[in-house]
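Hi team,

Below is the intake form for serine-type D-Ala-D-Ala carboxypeptidase from Aquibacillus halophilus. Please confirm the fields before the structure is written into the shared record.

FORM ID: S-0412
PROTEIN: serine-type D-Ala-D-Ala carboxypeptidase
ORGANISM: Aquibacillus halophilus
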Amino acid sequence: MKKNKTTQNMSSLLMFVFAVMFLILSGRFLYIQGTAEVAGISLHDWADKKRTSSYELQAQRGTVYDRNGMELAQDRATYRIYAIVRESYTSDPKEPKHVENSQETAEMLAPFLNMETSEIVSAIEKAKDEELFQVEFGVNGKDLSQEQRDEIENLKLPGVEFIKESKRYYPNGMFASHVIGLAQKKEVVTKDEKGTEVKEFITKGVIGIEQQMDDALKGEDGRISYKRDKYNTKLLKPEEVIKEEQDGNDVYLTIDQKIQTLLEDAMSQVEEQYNPERMTAVVMDPNTGEILAMSNRPSYNPNQIGNVENWYNDVISSPFEPGSTMKIFTLAAAIEEGLYNPEEIFQSGKYRIDENSSINDWKIGGWGPITFREGIQRSSNVAAAILAYDKVGPEKFYEYLQAFRFDQPTGIDLPGELVGKLQYTYKSNKITASYGQGSTVTPIQQMMAASAIANDGNLVQPYIVSKVVNSETGDILQESGPTIVGNPVSAETAMQVRDELETVITSEKGTGQMYKLNDYSLAGKTGTAQIPDPEDPPYMNGNGNYIYSFLGMAPKDDPELMMYVSVKQPELSGNELGSEPVSFIFKTVMENSLHYLKIEPDNVIKEDIHTVKIPEIVGVSLSEAKERLENYDLQLVTIGTGNTVKMVDPPVNDEVLPNEKVILLTDDPKMPDLTGWSIRDVMRLGHLLNLEVEIKGSGYAISQSIEMGNGISSKNQLVVEFVPPNKEIDSNNSG
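The structure came back. Fields below:
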């Protein structure tokens, strides 16, 4: 009886406990049902999040163009590959949607991804073991081209899919790289409307125009979300929400692709031949301040970033002691003050600063008693010192240096501009400032100052952004124009300075004879700047241990172009002069650019260089087109097997120089042999055929990704490798 009672009590206790637990659980379920919350988390929101899939609609970054509409930086479609490994994703075994055979799939993918077969198999099998839905293949599976994606898709591998992305691409490679700059993807952590952290990659400009105009170029990403099942398939009622992306605006530069190409090719040749420590060059329209070309060496290819020697745009970011090009402004100050008499005699050779120090001309002992005109022609330091210190006076001369704005930045629309420093404390540096020693300036400061000499006394601000355009509507959102920022000298003074500087080129005594142009009068000044030596002050010695430079403007009476070139520490041999690499760059670019701009020659000293106007040949038979061109000294290249000319480059009515490459496009175009072609001609071909062209290297073409004779489609990407002249091919074969 006692045992039954105990059992009865235990049973009652257990029933009570179960009753309490039932009431608690029931109450909890009723609470959850009524509030739809667990631990403060809304079940509606949790379920909605689980059923919702979302992804970005990536905005396209704006395109950077040259002044004539040539693409300099653009977004290019790339693809990221992934493999679906979950077997349950396949609903019909006859049409598998996942990777069935890891080994076979890996063997097919390995050549495209530059991976070992075993690596791909390992990645797929590991994802299967971890019951993942899909697997990617790291950096090897990213940035695939349209052509690579198409080739892989043609293999029809089950489970292999692609995600389309965009990558910043620079069609011309090293072309104006310090100007255009670089945009790269950066990881950014933001929060959505619910406060949840979201990691995303955005393309951001880090240097050059890409950085300067980042706000205009970047655009705004959109987003799409929808309800889906566990296989990421949309539900019948997906409740789709779309926020449209807004593409970035397009930016047009003042850079001229043809002039820039002339500059890049000339600098590459000098780099190959002389291996200088540094080079800078800039071409400007002195009437407007538009920068038509700008380049530095060492440079880099923004498509293939490796060990970059120099990120700085030295034209705007590297102040240095400029040397004798500063005598231009010493001469201008003396003329403006009415204190320059070109026929006045002075004693060259040495100028005594005080009892213990003096300055010397570059030729020991000088040239004896000479006129100030001859002093300018011979680049006499003593002539500059007398003009600045004894005639104009140090205080007044300093005012002129300020009027030419050597004490402040130019304000050019590029990031990273630095300003030089005028050392003007002691008598010695007040004197040496007259011939460019002691004080520092940048090349762009010299260009802006010299614009007053070329442009009748008007100092114009240099600029490089021409306009900003809405990429969808074509509306101009921002437009730049000439800005006059000072008038340090009169138009009469500017003209007289140009007249005197012309004699630096034309006189037998002038240091600038090597820079004489064939068809155009030229005013300019040479410079040979000493380089500070930190180990054995004050300056380096020895052949080639200088910065050789030239600043010139042409035609002399009404300059249309102005150019500055500097070459630091070229490797000279034998009797070579430091001015030789500088003059090669200057003359090549200036002469050809003036002809390209159709500036009327004013100083023809050789037989006239005739130009050829492309006749009306579009729509005529190929044989007739060749007949019309046969009497001209042109290189004809026929693209295609058709009998009728569909397009021609250069276009009809364009005037071209002799030996220009003329491309005749007919039906069914085939890829020609590009060996020996210049970068400029390859880019023309790409533009004509609507091809994406990737440039590797500089100089002249030695290999191409699309073989000669293959068909051409606008979906193709053409990769061409170039080498400097005299390295692999004879540059005389180029166009």
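SUMMARY LINE: Confidence is low (pLDDT under 50) at residues 726-735.

Thanks, M.
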